[in-house]
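Q: Convert this sequence to structure tokens.
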Amino acid sequence: MTRRIFSTVGTAMLVSALVSCSLFRSGPGATVKQFYQDVEAGNITEALALLSSQLRGSIGDQKLRAGLATQATAMRQQHKGLRSIQTEKEDVQGELATVTTLITYTDGTTQRDVTKLVLEDGAWKISPSK
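A:
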């Protein structure tokens, strides 16, 4: 019984240590998926938070907010929403990443997208495509 308690406590401490060291940090593919889900749901503030400071600074939050709102409306009206987002390829090189996704809409149309990301303050952020 005592052994089981120590084993459980030890496992909990190990998981806690791994999480605090960011070993379970969301990867760039998860960031791209969350971005599309936020845009479709109209969660523009949350979607903006997934964009890099360079992108936000060069375009401006007001223009980005308007563009994302337009994209959200188009996703819902033209494509009837998102069915799935699949990461096809994720290439991480240091603090830069490229993610290729296959987006399937509810109306059956698909779109392949390549997104550039940068690691910023410990989180993956979508960056300009250069």
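The domain at 27-126 is CATH 3.10.450.50 (Nuclear Transport Factor 2; Chain: A,).
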